[in-house]
């Protein structure tokens, strides 16, 4: 298979499992649970094994999303500098799409770490039934904390639209 400079991979991740409340009792500061840390490390290994090194990482400012990316990176997934994107916190699918559309033009692999329901809804709407049958079957089983979806897209990030991507893989956490 030949690739062009317009072949893109978008990895959409829902943060790994978090504790019920943060030290200050607010949602924003909820840290990962021990299981969440293990799941995020396993995701990092899975991404590395499948060759999904990231050119750009866009992450919600919530503690659990930032810790998810720290664990993914610590597990050996090549990662770019993590950029905090405030629209991903409590963002809907349109916010996830808008953030992805603003990715660096020359980035081939972009990883977005956010929350439900925005991330799962964006996966569903971006792929719109296109892609691997097993991946779509996996998507019907839900999008639990720590789940990742890999979508392929051909074009400029700024032109990314619902129905323009192909769902390649969905990875649920083992824990």
TrEMBL record:
PANTHER family hit by this protein: OS09G0287300 PROTEIN (PTHR47623)
Keyword Transmembrane appears in the UniProt entry: no
EC number(s) reported in the record: 3.1.3.-
Biased composition (Basic and acidic residues): 25-40
Membrane-crossing segments per the record: none
Region ranges (Disordered): 16-40
EC class name: hydrolase
InterPro entries referenced in this protein's UniProt entry, alphabetically: His_Pase_superF_clade-1, His_PPase_superfam
Name of the protein described by the UniProt record: Phosphohistidine phosphatase
A GO molecular-function annotation: hydrolase activity
UniProt keyword terms in alphabetical order: Hydrolase
């Amino acid at each position: 298979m030949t690739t062009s400079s317009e072949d893109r991979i978008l990895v959409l991740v829902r943060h790994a499992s978090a504790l019920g409340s943060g030290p200050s009792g607010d949602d924003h500061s909820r840290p990962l649970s021990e299981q969440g840390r293990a799941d995020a490390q396993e995701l990092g290994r899975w991404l590395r094994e499948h060759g999904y090194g990231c050119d750009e990482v866009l992450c919600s400012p919530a503690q659990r999303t930032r810790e998810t990316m720290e664990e993914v990176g610590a597990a050996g997934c090549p990662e770019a500098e993590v950029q905090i994107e405030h629209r991903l916190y409590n963002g809907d699918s349109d916010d996830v799409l808008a953030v992805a559309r603003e990715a660096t033009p020359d980035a081939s692999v972009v990883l977005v770490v956010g929350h439900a329901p925005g991330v799962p809804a964006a996966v569903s709407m971006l792929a719109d039934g296109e892609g691997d049958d097993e991946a779509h079957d996996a998507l019907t089983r839900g999008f639990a904390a720590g789940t990742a979806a890999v979508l392929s897209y051909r074009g400029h990030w700024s032109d990314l639209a619902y129905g323009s991507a192909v769902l390649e893989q969905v990875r649920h956490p083992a824990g």
